[in-house]
Amino acid sequence: MTNYLITGGAGFIGSALIRYLSGFQDVNIVNIDKLTYAGNLEALKSVEYKENYKFLKFDICNQSKMEDVFETFKPDIVYHLAAETHVDRSINNPTNFLNTNVFGTASLLSAALSYWNKLSGSKKDRFRFISVSTDEVYGSIEENNFFDEKSPYMPNSPYAASKASSDHLIRAWNKTYELPTIITNCSNNYGSFQYPEKLIPLIIINAINYIKLPVYGDGKQIRDWLHVSDHVDALIKISKKGVVGDKYNIGGNVQIANLEVVHKICDILDNSSLEKTNIKSFKDLIAFVDDRPGHDRRYAINFNKIKNDIGWSPSILFDQGLFDTVNWYIDNKSWWHRKFQNTKYF
Ligand SMILES: NC(=O)c1ccc[n+]([C@@H]2O[C@H](COP(=O)([O-])OP(=O)(O)OC[C@H]3O[C@@H](n4cnc5c(N)ncnc54)[C@H](O)[C@@H]3O)[C@@H](O)[C@H]2O)c1
Questions:
Q1: Fewer Cβ neighbours under 10 Å: the N or C end of the chain?
Q2: Does domain 2-194+226-252+297-316 fall into CATH 3.40.50.1820?
């Protein structure tokens, strides 16, 4: 049996990881999530009655609770995903980001260390603390260049700075205390069950509701998109083959300007069964808005290390993944409508 402790499992990526892992007989999963506005247990409806899955509503900042969880559950693999994740919110309220992403990570690391120090034999050897981070820690990169694992950290938003701090703590707990940690730095994810403040679900849901599609600045900011299922696959492979103390970049090999992403979504919707009430194309709803302060211009990931050392590459083509994602939001209105009906999407 392998015991997985997953933090932030009610979020977008964490819930995809749990849905995947829960399909295996030889695993136990505990999901630690505070259920912030971004946490949604409805993304876990398909697993909530499984015997190998348990949800605990805890804050990772509560170190003594985290110590109890480690002692009780005895994890082999920790996937740390709990975080405040939306850049705009970090600009308006950085404190939450420092609390969870910095102090929360430190509290979790301390709890993990006190548990791991008491282990022995193969249980101790196989323990891994895998922390899921972002390419945003590297800042913005010029055209034709790519971030690799040796790129300097140059975070530009409070979110990116808090994740960079988290990465530094993960590294320090490995170098100082030899806790077997691994850091992953992944590009922008997309797919089903993503909270609709992020670009792709925001645009889809606004369009379905015939409200404006806000595009920051000139819309030429480039992001490297990865389907969440490919990310889950990378995280599983890293738990098996990743080198302790190391870090891995994970990218989608798809660098596309935000405006082009919005156009692609509109093309899919134009060809869907949705009625075009008072518009010729969903592109008519596009509205350029003031750019985000400190907005990074371009992200692009060199993922040669995980490709060569671990044998992972992205498998889902962006156009197909986007088509499926748009249709998922059309077909699952009840999922996002119940949760988000009181939220303004623009
Ligand atoms: N979404 C992306 O494109 C992307 C890309 C690269 C890396 N990441 C990283 O992956 C991780 C998961 O991202 P996501 O998009 O699934 O985020 P999300 O915002 O969808 O989910 C975050 C989850 O963490 C929980 N949480 C927040 N604070 C907590 C706390 N103090 N204690 C316990 N739980 C808490 C929330 O309730 C939520 O369920 C984050 O660490 C993020 O930085 C995300």
A1: N
A2: no
Q: What is the pLDDT of residue 343?
A: 59
69 Cα to the center of ligand 1, angstroms: 19
CB distance 185 to ligand 1 below 6 Å = no
184 lines ligand 1 (CB under 6 A): no
Per residue in 251-283, pLDDT (tens digit) is: 999 999 999 999 999 999 999 999 987 899 999
Tell me the average pLDDT across 35-39: 95
At residue 336 the predicted structure's pLDDT band, cuts being 50, 70 and 90, is confident
- Rounded Cα gap, residues 153 and 145, in angstroms: 15
Distance 138 CA to ligand 1 centre (A): 18
Ligand 1 mean position, distance from CA 61 (Å): 14
Average pLDDT over residues 221-235: 97
DSSP, collapsed to helix, strand or coil, labels residue 199 as helix
pLDDT at residue 335 in the model:
85
Give the per-residue pLDDT at 346. 42
pLDDT at 342 over 90: no
Which entry of 53, 138, 159, 329 is annotated as an active-site residue?
Answer: 159
- Using a 6 Å cutoff on CB, does residue 162 contact ligand 1? no
